[in-house]
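Before a computer can learn anything about folding, someone has to put a protein's shape into writing. The three-dimensional part falls to structure tokens, numbers that each stand for a local backbone shape. The protein below has been through that process, and both of its lines are reproduced in full.
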Amino acid sequence: MKQYATVMERAGHNWSAYVPDLPGCVATGATPAEVRRELAAAIALHLAGLREDGLPVPDPTTRVEYVAA
């Protein structure tokens, strides 16, 4: 099972998230927990679509780190 880095951001009154290694794979939700669930479903759907279309499933390459400022 591959693990993809995700980015979650506050977007006004809700949350949004995306997967840098899977362009176009995004989700929104009212809470961080909801957006995590929605993004997990979006990733599964995105990967299934790639496989169905005979396209390669990209390997995760994005690294996530925090920098103190």
